[in-house]
C-alpha cells in the first residue's frame, strides 16, 4: 500500500522479525542486519515500522539513531511513505514535527517516535519495538539503560541496523560474535561481507588496499557482490568503481567489503623506539614505592613490579620477579613489603591475580588505610583505564625510566589494547606475548600516583 515492497533479502529479514513462537510471541528478541550503506538495512527498518504500526498494531515503536540528523531524515522518509497512501494516511491522528520531538501518532493510541541517542545513555528509548539505527555507535550505557526497561513489555523486540563496526564498536561486535557463532536462539543475525583481507588479497593481511595495491580484494567485483546484495539492482557497478576511487581504502573496506575495524593490533600506544629511549640501566628509585602483581590467564606465570620516583623527579618502574607458577607470589610479596614498606600493593580483582585477595587479607594486606600492616589497593575498571593511559603519557612524554629488562621490553612490544568505554586498556587476548610484566608495572605506577608521598604543602593561615 505504501509502494515500498521488500527485496528478497529484506523479505528474509522480515520473515524472521515477524515469526512467532508456539506461545504467539515474537521468536526473535533481537534482530541485527549488518551490511553496507544503500543496500537494505534502512529500508527494512522502515518496512518493520510499517508492519508494527498498521499490521500488528503495536502501541509504541521507537526509532533511534546516533545523530539527530539521521533520526530526522528517517522521520521524513516515514512521513512521506505514510502520506503517499490514502489507506495509511487516514489512520494518522497527528504528526509531530517539533525539533527533537518528531513522532507519527495513529488513531487507537499507537505511536512511532524518533530519538537521537544521547551521551547520557538510553533513557527515553524504551518501547514495545525498538529500532537502533547506526548501531556501530552503540555504547554499553545505552544498552544498560534500555534493555532492563523492556522486561515489562508484553512482547519486546530490539533491531540493530549498521555497517561493519568501528574499532570502538564493542556493543555491535558482541552482537556480531553471538550471531556468527549461532549460539543465541533468540537472535536473528544477518550479515553481508566479503572474505577477510587475508583471503581476499594477494598480500593477505599486509595489503594496504591502496588503489595501486596488486591483487587487492577491494578491486574484485565478485567480492563487491558478496558484500552488497543490491549491486546490479539499486547500486551500479560504475558507482561502486567510483566509490573505490573516491573513498579512503579503510572506509571502502568497511562500507563496501564489510571489513570490520578490529582492536587486534589496531592500537599500539607505545612504540618500541619510544620505550627504548626511556631505558636507563643505572636508574634507581627512591622511597616510597608501590608494588603490583599480575598473573597470566592460564596461571603459568606471574609478575611483580615496583614503581616510584627518582631523585630527578622522573618516574621509574621495573620488574622485580617474573617466573613460572603462582605458589611463590604471596610469600614474595610479603618479603618485598617487609623490605620496602610500600605505600600500596596493587592488583586487579577482576583479573587472574584477583584470586590472591583473600589470602593477602589474611596475611596483613588490607584495603583499609590503617587496618593492617600493608595497604592493598584494588583497581576498578575505570582506574585501570586511567592507569594504562597515565603510563603511556609518561613514556611518550619522556617522564619514564626503566632498567631495560627483556621480559618487560617484550611485553611492551607485543602489547595490544581493547576498548574500555571511551578509553582503552591492555588486552591479554589480543597481545602477542605475555604482558603480565607490563600490567604489573602499569598497576604499580598507578599505586604510587594514588598513594605515594607528595611534596609537602606550605602552611597557610588567615589572620583577622
Which helices and strands occur, and which strands form pairs?
Blueprint: H1 8-17, E1 30-34, H2 41-54, E2 60-65, H3 68-83, H4 86-89, E3 92-96, E4 103-106, E5 110-116, E6 129-132, H5 140-146, E7 157-162, H6 170-181, E8 187-191, H7 197-200, H8 221-227, H9 237-246, H10 249-256, H11 272-277, E9 289-295, E10 301-309, E11 315-324, H12 329-340, E12 344-347, H13 357-362, E13 365-366, E14 374-378, H14 381-396, E15 400-401, H15 406-414, E16 416-420, E17 423-427, H16 436-451
Parallel strand pairs: 1-7, 1-8, 2-5, 2-6, 6-7, 9-12, 11-15, 12-14, 13-14
Antiparallel strand pairs: 3-4, 4-5, 9-10, 10-11, 16-17
Helix pairs in contact: 1-2, 14-16
Overview of this protein structure:
- 34% of the residues lie in helices and 20% in strands.
- An eight-stranded mixed sheet has the order 3-4-5-2-6-7-1-8, sandwiched between helices. A seven-stranded mixed sheet has the order 13-14-12-9-10-11-15, with helices on both faces.
- The protein is elongated, with a radius of gyration of 28 Å.
- It has helices spanning 8-17, 41-54, 68-83, 86-89, 140-146, 170-181, 197-200, 221-227, 237-246, 249-256, 272-277, 329-340, 357-362, 381-396, 406-414, 436-451; strands spanning 30-34, 60-65, 92-96, 103-106, 110-116, 129-132, 157-162, 187-191, 289-295, 301-309, 315-324, 344-347, 365-366, 374-378, 400-401, 416-420, 423-427.
- With 464 residues, it is α/β, with parallel strands linked by helices.
- The chain has 16 helices and 17 strands.
- Helix 1 packs across helix 2 (41-54) and helix 14 (381-396) packs across helix 16 (436-451).
Amino acid at each position: 500500500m505504501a509502494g515500498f515492497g521488500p527485496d528478497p533479502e529484506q523479505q528474509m529479514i522480515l520473515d524472521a522479525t515477524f515469526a512467532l513462537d508456539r506461545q504467539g510471541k515474537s521468536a526473535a528478541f533481537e534482530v541485527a542486519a549488518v551490511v553496507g550503506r544503500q543496500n537494505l538495512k534502512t529500508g527494512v527498518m522502515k518496512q518493520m515500522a510499517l508492519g508494527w504500526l498498521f499490521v500488528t498494531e503495536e502501541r509504541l515503536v521507537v526509532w533511534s539513531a546516533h545523530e539527530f540528523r539521521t533520526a530526522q531524515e528517517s522521520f521524513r522518509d516515514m512521513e512521506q511513505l505514510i502520506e503517499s497512501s490514502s489507506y495509511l494516511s487516514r489512520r494518522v491522528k497527528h504528526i509531530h514535527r517539533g525539533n527533537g520531538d518528531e513522532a507519527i501518532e495513529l488513531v487507537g493510541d499507537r505511536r512511532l517516535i524518533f530519538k537521537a541517542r544521547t551521551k547520557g545513555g538510553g533513557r527515553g528509548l524504551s518501547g514495545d519495538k525498538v529500532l537502533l539505527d547506526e548501531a556501530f555507535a552503540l555504547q554499553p550505557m545505552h544498552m544498560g539503560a534500555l534493555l532492563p526497561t523492556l522486561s515489562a513489555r508484553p512482547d519486546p523486540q530490539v533491531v540493530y541496523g549498521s555497517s561493519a563496526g568501528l574499532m570502538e564498536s564493542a556493543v555491535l561486535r558482541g552482537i556480531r560474535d553471538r550471531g556468527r557463532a549461532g549460539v543465541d536462539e533468540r537472535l536473528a543475525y544477518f550479515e553481508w561481507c566479503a572474505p577477510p583481507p587475508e583471503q581476499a588479497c594477494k598480500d593477505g593481511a599486509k595489503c594496504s588496499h591502496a588503489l595501486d595495491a596488486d591483487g587487492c580484494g577491494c578491486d574484485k567485483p565478485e567480492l563487491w557482490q558478496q558484500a552488497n546484495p543490491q549491486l546490479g539492482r539499486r547500486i551500479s557497478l560504475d558507482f561502486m568503481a567510483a566509490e573505490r576511487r573516491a573513498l579512503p581504502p579503510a572506509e571502502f573496506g568497511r562500507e563496501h567489503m564489510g571489513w570490520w575495524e578490529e582492536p587486534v593490533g589496531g592500537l599500539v600506544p607505545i612504540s618500541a623506539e619510544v620505550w627504548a629511549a626511556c631505558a636507563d640501566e643505572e636508574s634507581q628509585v627512591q622511597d616510597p614505592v608501590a608494588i603490583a602483581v599480575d598473573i597470566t590467564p592460564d596461571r603459568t606465570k606471574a609478575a611483580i613490579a615496583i614503581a616510584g620516583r627518582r631523585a630527578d623527579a622522573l618516574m621509574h618502574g621495573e620488574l622485580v620477579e617474573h617466573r613460572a607458577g603462582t605458589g611463590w607470589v604471596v610469600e614474595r610479596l610479603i618479603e618485598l613489603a617487609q623490605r620496602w614498606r610500600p605505600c600500596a600493593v596493587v592488583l586487579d580483582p577482576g583479573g587472574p591475580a584477583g584470586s590472591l585477595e583473600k589470602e593477602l587479607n589474611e596475611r596483613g594486606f588490607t584495603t583499609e588505610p590503617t587496618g593492617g600492616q600493608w595497604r592493598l589497593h584494588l583497581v576498578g575498571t575505570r582506574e585501570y583505564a586511567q592507569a594504562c593511559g597515565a603510563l603511556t603519557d609518561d613514556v611518550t612524554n619522556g617522564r619514564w625510566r626503566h632498567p631495560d629488562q627483556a621480559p618487560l621490553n617484550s611485553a611492551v612490544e607485543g602489547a595490544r589494547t581493547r576498548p574500555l568505554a571511551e578509553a582503552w586498556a591492555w588486552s591479554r587476548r589480543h597481545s602477542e606475548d605475555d604482558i603480565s610484566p607490563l600490567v604489573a608495572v602499569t598497576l604499580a605506577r598507578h599505586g604510587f600516583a594514588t598513594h605515594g608521598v607528595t611534596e609537602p604543602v606550605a602552611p597557610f593561615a588567615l589572620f583577622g
